[in-house]
Structure formats: C-alpha cells, structure tokens
Amino acid sequence: MFERKLGKQFGILLLLVAFWGVVEFMLKTGILNPFYELNLILIGINIILAVSLNLINGFNGQFSIGHAGFMAVGAYGAAIITLKAQLPFAIALLFGAVLAGIFGLLVGLPTLRLRGDYLAIATLGFGEIIRGMIVNIDYIGGAYGLSGIPKLANWTWIFALTVLTVIVIANFVNSTHGRATISIRENEIAAEAMGINTTKYKVMAFVIGSFFAGLAGGLHAHYFYTIQPNTFNFLKSFDILVMVVLGGQGSITGSIIAAVGLTILSASLQSLAALRLVIYALLLIVIMLFRPQA
Amino acid sequence: MEVMEVFLQQLINGVSLGSIYALIALGYTMVYGIVQLINFAHGDVYMVGAYLGFFATAILGWSFLPALLMSMFVCACLGVTIEKLAYKPLRMAPRIAALITAIGVSLFLGYGMMLLVGPQVRTFPQVLTEVQWKLFGSITVTNRQVIILVVTIALMLLLQYIVHKTMIGKAMRAVSHDKQAAQLMGINVNNTISATFAIGSSLAAAAGVLVGIYYNAINPLMGIMPGLKAFVAAVLGGIGIIPGAMTGGFLLGIVEAMVSGYGKSLYRDPVAFIILIIILIVKPAGLFGKNIREKV
Question: How many CB pairs under 8 A join A and B?
Fold first, then answer.
C-alpha cells in the first residue's frame, strides 16, 4: 500500500521533471518566445498566490482580501536583500517570505478574532496600510517604487517553487494540523468544543498563506526588475480572490486550473485591461449566483 | 495664531470632505442594517452618480439642482436593480457568497464605466462659479463648501424624516429589527429592502455630484477609495446606526483633512484604515455602541 503510494508519487515527480525539462529546452532553443516565457512565469506566481490564499479562504474559511499586501512585503523584503545587501537570491526569497509570514502573524493575531465580513474588511484595511507605509518609506523608493532589481528569477526557480508550494500546502491540508484547520471552517464552535485551539490554527493558516504570498512577491520582484506600491493594491488581491473562487474554495487543483486559465485569459486580453476586469467581475457574480461551490 | 488658523481651515475642509463620506456611509449603514451585507458596490454607485451629474451638466447643460435630482433618481433605480439581480437570489446563501458578489458588482460597475467612457479623468464643468469668502485671518470658505454642507444636512434631515415619520421608514426599522416578524405583520419585506437600496443609492449619487462640483475631476475608479473610507466611517459610528454614520463620516473627513493639512498627505489613506482596525479590535460596535442601536 505504502509502496504503491510512493510509486505514484515518484511517477508524478518524474512527470513534473519531464515537463520542466521540455519547457526549459523549448525556452532555451527559442521554440517558445519570451511572451510565452512571461506567461509561464506569471502562471507560476499566480498559482503560488491562489493556492496560498485558498489555504486561508478555502480551507480555513477565514475570508481575507488583503493578500496582495503580503505579496508586497515579500517583494520588497526580497528586493532589499539582493539590491542593498547583495546577498544570494535564495536568501532574499527566504527573507521576503519570512518577513511576510511575520507580517501575517502581526496582522492575524488581532484580526482573526473577527468573523466573516468584518475580517474581510480588516484584512483589506491591512493590505492598504501596508501599501500606504511602503509609499511613505523613502529607503525603498516611496511611491516611485524600487527598480534595478536583478533579474534572478527564471523558469527553473519559478517552477520549482510553485511545485514546492503546492506540495507543502497539500501536505499541510492533509496533516493533523490541516484537519484541525478545515474543522474550523466547517464549524468553529464545534471545533473549539472538540479541543482544537482555533486561534492557533487560524493564525497558523494565515501565517503559512502569507509566507507563500511573500515568496510569490519575491519571485515577482526578481522577474520584473521593478516594483511599485501600486502593483500590490486591492485589485491585485481581487485578482487572486477571483482565482480562488473560480477554482473552488478548498480545492487546490481548482485553484491551479483557475490560475492557469485566468492568466492565459488576461494575457489574451492584455490590450483591454478594463474588459478583462469586467469579465472577471461577471465571472464572480455568475459563479456566486449559480454555482457557489465553483 | 498661525497654528489655530491652519487648524480652523482644515476643520472647514474636513467638514466638506466629511459630508461626502457621511452621505456615502449612510447608504452602507442602511443596507447593512437591513440585509447584513457590506455592499461593496456602493462606492461605485457614487461614481455612477458623479458621471450622471457630469453628463447632465456638461452635455445636457443642466444647472446644478436638476442634475443632482436626476442623478439621485437614476442611481436609486440602479441600486434597486443591483439588489434585485445580484443580491436578492443570495439572501439565503452564506454571507461570504453575497460579499464576493458585491465585490464582483463593484468591479463590474467600475470597469464597465471605464469601457463605456474611457479611463481618462473628466473635468466637471463650472456649474457654480466659485466665490471665496474670507473669514478672519487667512481662513477662507468657498460657496461650494457651503453648498455641500447645506445639501448634506438637508438630505440628512429628509432621511431622518423618512425613517421616523413615514410608513416606509417604519417598515424599514421593523425589517431591520426582525425580518420574519415584520413579514408576519404584513410588511412587504422585498419592497422595503428595495426602498432601502433606493434611498442609500440616491444619497451616494448626491455625494457623487457634490464631489464633482467640489474637486472638478471624476474618473471611473474614483468610487473605490471613498467607498472603502465611507465604510470605515460607518463602522466608526457603529454599523447599522444612522446618526453613527453621519458622525463617523464627519469625523473621518476632519481627521483626514488634519493629516493632509499638517503636511502628511501621503499618510491620509493609511490613517483611515488604521482607525478602522483600531475600532474593529477595540469597539466593534462603533462609537455609538449597542445601547442606542437604531438600525435601519
């Protein structure tokens, strides 16, 4: 039984490596042009964002709409490390993600006492506060943003970290801690009555989610050379939210598919940003009206 | 003396800004009081109101008052339509589903408007020529600020009258108190909810037209920030409480004007949200607390 499972996992791993190899080969030989590379990168980043938000919104049932704020923390944290301290990329990414995780802890502890729509508004507020603070710190470029970040992220990094994120979150959800997390979504009072420390697990899910959002932010910063506070406004949070809702709250596969689909959709509607968001909005409404479970 | 003058000037500016927030906050608080939904699209109704005002004054050449009334009327219809199409089917669904829908409606209105009229900033025509009155020292009040305040107070008085003295107001209070009991008493709950949306949306539209006149510039995404801040104002005063929304709006406007007046304009937006977080954590019921809860 165990061996068979191991065999299956090995098969998946082999498949993933093969996929990575084929894409890497095609990128190197120029079969896939930079436009496709850009979108592959975006898909990877969006998958990390959607899956990590899904942990908070979908599995833990805590409605957060400030995810872009943590992404911003990670992006700036990582960029400072490579740009100002000139340390290796891996350290920068880790620093950005940990920093975002710490912010997640700071934000999560007081706000996770709130429920439902109040929590949503509080996370939205925090996302905006983080952005507002970044605008006011001259060291990291203020409202103009930070530019000249070395382009260290590439397909290999993004692919590896996307896979890592999915594996970690999927394993977390299936672990003891994950079960506790899900039980809070199902019924918080019952979970508490069963002896689950609800605050601990809510904050845990929030911190893990923030950590990976920070990771995505770090990757984003090191692919696009430049970051601005406005990149991480609540529209970005909504983007991620649409992916989670479209894919189904509490479904990792759904989030991945939605992230891939919506990234491709937005790439094909690049010239019509307004139309893209109108379509997003209609998608949200229609899903909620006719198929809330997505 | 200098310090005092800056303070008074910012107080005047703050009251004008606060009037706008208060008008929008009223719609939030009424809708929340009656259906327990944060109507994210409310800020965008305000934006539509501003565009209707722009359309009436710049293209049709109407004067201020007819433009204001037309905008209020059309937005009232818009509010009712949104409620019927998007929120009503979800009344029994989990609140998060309705919240996501509200976000969807908000994005739809904002970007739909952008598709329709283009993303550029429009300059509002000078419907009212600006007159500045010098009070003592260097403190000035413009006629626009006075008009904003007068219109706001008039609308608030009208609202108080509707809520407390009319049949529909009584029905609103009853429905917000207990939906089922109200229904058993023969109140048409659906119509009452529609009326609440209509009144709230028309107040937002009035705020939109007033903002157009005050700042002279409107754009399709102008509704998002004031919408969120008006929600902060509603929470500040205690959500569901009408006088709370008015007070919260004025308070928030004054705080923001003070922050910008003392040279920290970049901190304006974070300050509003910091107030929100503090209120949510310390006193989620808002300044006006639970005892005098007067929900509509």
Answer: 117
Q: Flag whether A202 is in a domain.
A: yes
Chain A neighbors of B284, CB-CB under 8 A = 114, 118
Residue A88: what are its φ and ψ, rounded to 5°? Answer: -60, 160
Determine which of A190-194, B11-15, B101-105, B291-295 has the lowest per-residue pLDDT on average.
Answer: B291-295
Query: Which residues, numbered 63 to 122 in chain B, qualify as contacts with chain A under a Cβ-Cβ cut-off of 8 Å?
Result: 86, 89-90, 93-101, 103-108, 110-112, 114-115, 119
* Contact between B267 and A65 using a beta-carbon 8 Å cutoff: no
- Domains of chain B, CATH where assigned: 2-118+141-282 (1.10.3470)
Which residue in the set A111, A143, A238 is minimally distant from B103, CB to CB? A238
Cα–Cα distance for residue pair A68/A229, rounded to 1 Å: 10
ipTM: 0.76
List CB contacts (< 8 A) between A247 and chain B: none
CB A13 within 8 A of CB A164: no
Give A126's contacts in chain B (Cβ within 8 Å).
Answer: 273, 277
Q: Which of A234, A278, A200 is CA-nearest to residue A65?
A: A234
> Do B182 and B190 meet the contact criterion of CB atoms below 8 Å apart?
no
CB contact under 8 A, B266 and A285: no
Three-state secondary structure string covering A88-128:
CHHHHHHHHHHHHHHHHHHHHHHHCCCCHHHHHHHHHHHHH
Look at residues B14, B5, B10 and name the one whose alpha carbon lies nearest to residue B254. Answer: B14
Asked, for residue A116, whether it belongs to a domain, the answer is: yes
| CA-CA-CA-CA torsion sign (A205, A211, A216, A217) | positive
Full residue range of the structural domain in which residue A261 is found: 37-290
Write the CATH number for A226: 1.10.3470
Parallel/antiparallel/unpaired status of strands B122-123 and B217-218: antiparallel
Can you tell me the mean pLDDT for A191-203? Answer: 83
A22-67 confidence digits (pLDDT tens): 777 777 777 777 777 788 888 888 899 988 998 888 888 888 888 8
Closest in A110, A121, A136 to B281, CB measured = A110
Q: How confident is the model at residue A3 (pLDDT cuts 50, 70, 90)?
A: low
**Domain assignment of residue A274, yes or no:** yes
Radius of gyration of chain A (CA): 19
Q: What is the mean pLDDT of chain B?
A: 84
B294 within 8 A of B242, measured Cβ to Cβ: yes
pTM above 0.90, yes or no: no
